[in-house]
Write a structure and sequence with these properties.
alpha/beta, Four Helix Bundle (Hemerythrin (Met), subunit A), 3 domains, 21 helices, flat
């Protein structure tokens, strides 16, 4: 995400590279390039102009310390301003009521139904809630079935009335059901509608009036850029929603919607969709996103994702095995599974400071671990627990069985040995060590 914007901002900062001080001339040149970068990212002209004016004013008012280069100072000012532009701090979802009713609205095709499923999983796992998904899209063919499939995937209940075509009645009945069924969160998935369709806009306003939701979330496809912001204005005038959800952010390299939407509708971005998987939903943190846009990584989010997959009991077992030199390929396979659950591989690696630039133009397949898994699964149980048994003939058999080459098998075994030494030295287990190994190159890890 934001690849194009990050690249253009980096070029803009080069104007100050080697400069001994900040002057009105070199700042003006830099701001000109930054404004161009923002406009290319589909940020509206007024927002881009106000932003660069604020940065320029603060930059010229700063005295550069001897130990700080002008480019570094401007980067710090840019980070603060980007954070402010996107909302300063993250905004929590309101789930204090029992049941808390969340109304999900947005354009056709914006990803509302998928988001509803992701939100249910998020609230169930991170907030220990018992969500109920409500199918109020009575127009789109198979919409009810889709929500049912998603509900099954994330392990929550779904309320639907196949014959009823009145979304207001369905929503009201669903809340009654939730109260009797001990569901403490009700997520109402509504039909997609166009802002110019007065009848459909009135319908969702009627749903809002009937159920008095504790939270109204407007879902928008970030790929639509500036159009997303215009649509948000129209929906906000009708619904006065509480927050914005940006879907498909992993597929948008521009990021204009994320940078503009807060300043235009004065409503916080609460969630972002980071992948098509059901766990591909993140709480939006403006400061972390600003760091990523400027190529500074996002270590906090990376650690949080690792912690979500962290199994304390399993970690203790791994630690004991490492101490006794008993860490085998089966244990290695479990660590791979943990990392895969953390999300898109390129997105994860871009969270490591400095890696975003290094990964430019590099294609990292989400199935990057496929070859490694195939090689390990081609080993016998004895070989997995005791890698010292892997002589030449065994390695050849593993290569044939996994559809890889002997060189790849040798490389995996070599790197497994290096990783074992490193993990023993650090006396810690799992994803953190593997991420460090990937940072230092990865070799037998995902191919780049």
């Amino acid at each position: 995400m934001f690849e194009n914007l990050s690249e253009k901002l980096e070029k803009a900062f080069k104007v100050l590279k080697g400069q001994g001080s900040i002057s009105e001339i070199n700042v003006a040149q830099t701001m000109k390039e930054i404004r161009k970068a923002l406009l290319t990212a589909d940020v509206d002209f007024k927002t881009a102009k106000n932003f660069t004016n604020n940065v320029k004013e603060k930059a010229l008012g700063q005295k550069v310390q001897t130990a700080v280069e002008p480019g570094q100072l401007l980067t710090k000012i840019m980070k603060d301003e980007l954070t402010e532009l996107m909302g300063s701090s993250h905004s929590e979802i309101n789930i204090q009521s029992n049941p808390s009713v969340i109304l999900v609205a947005g354009l056709q095709g914006s990803g509302k139904t998928t988001f509803s499923g992701k939100l249910a999983l998020h609230l169930k796992g991170k907030h220990n809630k018992k969500p109920l998904l409500v199918a109020c899209d009575v127009y789109r063919p198979a919409a009810i079935d889709q929500l049912g499939v998603l509900a099954e995937q994330v392990g929550v209940e779904v309320y639907k009335e196949v014959e009823n075509k009145n979304p207001v009645e369905i929503a009201q009945n669903a809340i009654k059901f939730a109260k009797s069924n001990n569901n403490n969160v009700v997520i109402v998935d509504t039909a997609g509608r166009l802002a110019i369709d007065e009848q459909m806009m009135n319908e969702i306003a009627d749903v809002k009036s009937a159920i008095s939701p504790s939270e109204i979330l407007f879902v928008v496809d970030s790929m639509t850029g500036q159009d997303a912001v215009n649509t948000a204005k129209a929906f906000n005038e009708k619904l006065n929603f509480d927050g914005v959800v940006l879907t498909k952010l992993d597929g948008d390299t521009r990021g204009g919607a994320a940078l503009t939407i807060r300043s235009v509708v004065d409503k916080p971005i609460k969630f972002i969709g980071t992948s098509e998987k059901m766990d591909g939903l993140d709480v939006f943190h403006p400061e972390r996103m600003a760091s990523r846009i400027l190529g500074m990584g996002d270590v906090i989010s990376l650690v949080e994702r690792a912690q979500q997959q962290f199994d304390e009991e399993e970690a203790r077992k791994v630690q004991k095995k490492i101490a006794k030199n008993q860490f085998g390929f089966d244990d290695f396979l479990k660590q791979i599974q943990q990392i895969k659950k953390m999300g898109n591989m390129k997105d994860l690696m871009a969270m490591i400071p400095g890696m975003g630039k290094a990964l430019k133009g590099v294609d990292i397949d989400d199935d990057a671990f496929k070859g490694i898994e195939a090689m390990i699964k081609s080993m016998t149980l004895e070989e997995r627990s005791n890698p010292k048994l892997l002589n030449g003939s065994r390695r050849k058999r593993i290569a044939n069985g996994s559809g890889t080459s002997i060189q790849e098998v040798n490389q995996l075994i070599k790197q497994f040995g290096q990783m074992g030494k490193m993990m023993k030295m650090m006396q810690g287990g799992g994803a953190k060590q593997m991420m460090q190994m990937m940072k230092n190159n990865g070799g037998g890890m995902p191919k780049m």
